[in-house]
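Query protein
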Amino acid sequence: MRNLKTLMKINYGIGQISDGVMHAAWTGFLVFYYHQVLGLPGKMAGLAALLALVIDAVTDPMVGHLSDRLKSKFGRRHPLMLLGVLPFLLAMIALFSPPGGLSTWALFAWLLTFAILLRLALTLFYVPHLSLGAEIEQDYHHKTSLIGYRIFFAYFGVLFVSVIGFMVFFPATAVYTNGLLNPAGYANFGLFCGLLAASAMLWCVFSTKSLIPSLSQPTETINILSSLLAFMTLAKTLKLPSFRVLFFILVMITTLAGVNSTLMTYLGIYVFDFSAEEIGLINASIILGLLLASLIAQTLSKRYDKKKALAVCLIVGSVVGFSPSFLYLAGFFEGIPWAVKFLLVFLANGISQAFFIALIILLESMLSDCIDVNEYQTGMREEGVFFAARSFATKASFGLGSFFAGVALDIVALPQGAKPEDVAPETAWELAFFTGPIMACLFLSVYFLIRLYDLDAKRHKEIMTEMAAAKSRL
């Protein structure tokens, strides 16, 4: 069984910066830019995000199918990963540089077209990259370590883009007291995001190519018709009970995360009255999550097993993360010094991120365990198919979350292009109520799904021992 060195784990993990960059740009800036700056209605901005993610999600099983069966001297994963780099760069630049003077429907079409291209390009890298991780590390606890590196760099991408974006590209000016309303910074921001993600993707591809000779070769050849119909393989993955539970947990978590992440910028501006620079500092609290998440995941996993550890992370993350909105609704922030309000929001965000990132690490590790169970039952290593199903769950539901967020913005009737002082207190209260009590209850409801998961460390060890014994007899 392969024992990866720390440097190789880092090289592998760096590739996930691309997903973090896309996530931060998409949720923190893109919807706000098209809705509040360019004037696209919230439902239309949310619908474009939803359609792009659903179309992208349908292609994930196709890429996973190809990734499992591609035969080349560069391996199964690396050629597809490399293929996604240039389209991603170009699409990211285009998204934040729409031509001036477009009508509402033309602007919607521009957003939809390049959002689809961006997501498809990332899929070419993302699905094989996830599959590569499951292939190079198969130990029950070592998986959690490797996934910790990948999640660390994903959130590093989120952090870096958020902080640099808010504080460097969108500073306050005499005309725009909140720099996010200034259209001038978005084109350079898109270029920055594209170059950062493309560089991380290229680094990962070329720094991990030394692993190619030791990786598994495809057991089946590519069939074009089967690849086009690979979406149907989702049904196959859902036949595995443990994976089926994880699939629906992912759907719930990422739908809610899509809503929450899209609305966080609005919450910071219109509820807590933070400037763009101050929102950037709040987002820097993710550093706490990055420093603590892997330790939390591994410690809880070894002490309680992954299922109970997942529940602990969900409950603590939800209670702490949504507490600022509860405090606002209770009137706690009225009349208190700005520094106290900022510190409370900063700490709540940082601590909750530590547990939510740990939750993601655990989910990814549990998914890899399910792949081992599938190999035990079928004799086939199908990382691409399972991670494509995972990617479908997260992308489709995250798109649904973005759509719901757009609908919520229209329901609370937040004026487009409004300065914080122009927003009615009732509107701010409604926004805080939605992002506090309602979201907290929805997140905590995922606990009832977690209780259905039935694969533990003991059973996984038995499966791996039996497979090792069977292989030794060949």
